[in-house]
Amino acid sequence: MAEASIYEIHDARFRQLIVTSAGLDELYSGCRWAEGPVWFNDANQLLWSDIPNQRILRWTPEGGVSLYRQPSNFTNGHTRDRQGRLVSCEHGGRRVTRTETDGSISVLADRFEGARLNSPNDVVVKSDGTIWFTDPTYGIMSNYEGYQAEPEQATRNVYRLDPATGKLAAVVTDFIQPNGLAFSPDEMILYIADSAASHDESLPRHIRAFDVIDGSRLENGRVFCHIDNGIPDGIRTDVDGNLWSSAGDGVHCFDPAGKLIGKIRIPQTVANLTFGGPGRNRLFIAATRSLYSLYVATSGAQRP
Prior knowledge:
Strand order of the largest sheet: 1-24-23-22-21
Distance between the termini: 35 Å
Helix content: under 10%
Order of helices and strands: HEEEEEEEEEEEEEEEEEEEEEEEEEEE
Number of strands: 27
Radius of gyration: 18 Å
Largest sheet: 5 strands, antiparallel
Number of helices: 1
Strand content: over 45%
């Protein structure tokens, strides 16, 4: 019954990644645009953004949902660094910030080559501590998810920040609207979504893959997969190298070669997702107005 209702099997291998008896749980409803889920195992909590409502929400298994921060400066994507601190992309401040252990907020990046960033969208931290983030223009297109403004950057870039030195480098400059990003389990590949079709159906709705050279450069960019319903927004990889992407009809799962092997149908358009729980086998899904969760038969690759 569960499989017939939410799972779409495109390849038999997808059956090994899902728990067909597991139901889809709606943990919260009432967001305007849910985004950026990040799991903190040491605190047994999930944080996520409700961008237009200017808030970051917290969910715990024991206590349910509570308010973590408001106003949030139109925060979008989040991750955690290797020291367990929250790293966030702010549309409102057009910057990447870090929440310190005492609760204060440090600005990690807000300008490149003297000009303001567009509106940092999503972020990941590599095992060496470097911070990689995307910078499309979604947060300055209107006053709904940020503050309307003209872009100061000539291109929509993907950046690498070394927090130890403060050096910010543009590692890719040819995206139309770079969005979610995720490393392969061995960190030899960086996957980056281009969601430009969100505002023009003729533009890309694909995920590109890049080889990571010397831990700091990207080469050999190629299209990894296309999303056949909606756009790719947030993405994650599991321990076997499969890539899980948000989409218009739910979550799409691709094998390491880029073949679609299955879908999980979600009632609302999915913006982002992350693996969490003690075994990293619980998929948390930010979908328009709601936060959902679903147990799977694999584990997320992202550590810690």
